[in-house]
């Protein structure tokens, strides 16, 4: 009985530490991101991409597609030429940096990284998953993502 309680406590502490570690980078850097909030105060998920976009930028834009199909979050895709004061590639939620070139995740994000932030922030999910949930579409989408990662080879 005591052993089970110790195991449960250890698991709880490990999970808490993981959550703190996952969110620690979000609180570290705040930058003035144009359009970081909607008119009614909702935080905007901003993806800053280089002109022209490279592998990390294209990967981030694919993550934006996945996020838009699952979460009810405003998203803006901004070329770096319009925001030269921000690093590129970069991803922000409101003014808080999730990833940036030369900083956290070196500017590249995954669905898991962004969705963890949105889950912690309590962002609601779509009532119905978008087309990315369709098996045939998902297979083609995954092939596209893989092609981008390998440079089209």
Secondary-structure element order, N to C? HEHEEEHH
Q: Give the structural class.
A: alpha+beta
Cα(first) to Cα(last) distance is 56 Å
| Alpha-carbon Rg, integer | 17 Å
Largest sheet: 4 strands, mixed
**What's the helix count?**
4
Helical content band? 40-55%
Principal-axis shape: globular
Number of domains: 1
Overall pLDDT confidence: 83
Measured by DSSP, the beta-strand proportion falls in 5-15%
Adjacency order of strands in the biggest sheet: 2-1-3-4
Which regions are unreliable across 5 or more consecutive residues at pLDDT < 50? Answer: 20-27
Task: Work out the number of β strands.
Answer: 4
Summarize the structure.
With 153 residues, the protein is of the alpha+beta class.
What does this structure look like?
- The chain has 153 residues and is of the alpha+beta class.
- The protein has one domain (2-149).
- Helix content is 45%, strand content 12%.
- The chain is built from four helices and four strands, in the order αβαβββαα.
List keywords for this structure.
single chain, 153 residues, alpha+beta, four-stranded mixed beta sheet, 4 helices
Topology:
Layout: H1 2-28, E1 45-49, H2 55-70, E2 75-79, E3 90-93, E4 96-100, H3 111-121, H4 135-149
Parallel strand pairs: 1-2
Antiparallel strand pairs: 1-3, 3-4
């Amino acid at each position: 009985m005591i052993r089970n309680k110790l195991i449960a406590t250890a698991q709880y502490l490990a999970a808490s530490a993981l959550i703190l570690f996952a969110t620690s980078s979000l609180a570290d850097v705040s930058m003035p991101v144009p359009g970081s909030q909607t008119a009614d105060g909702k935080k905007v998920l901003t993806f800053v991409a280089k002109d022209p976009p490279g592998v990390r930028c294209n990967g981030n834009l694919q993550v934006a597609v996945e996020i838009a199909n699952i979460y009810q979050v405003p998203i803006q895709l901004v070329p770096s030429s319009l925001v030269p004061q921000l690093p590129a590639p970069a991803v922000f939620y409101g003014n808080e940096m999730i990833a940036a070139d030369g900083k956290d995740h070196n500017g590249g994000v995954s669905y898991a990284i962004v969705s963890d932030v949105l889950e912690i922030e309590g962002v609601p999910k779509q009532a119905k998953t978008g087309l990315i949930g369709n098996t045939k579409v998902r297979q083609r989408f995954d092939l596209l993502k893989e092609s981008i990662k390998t440079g089209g080879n």
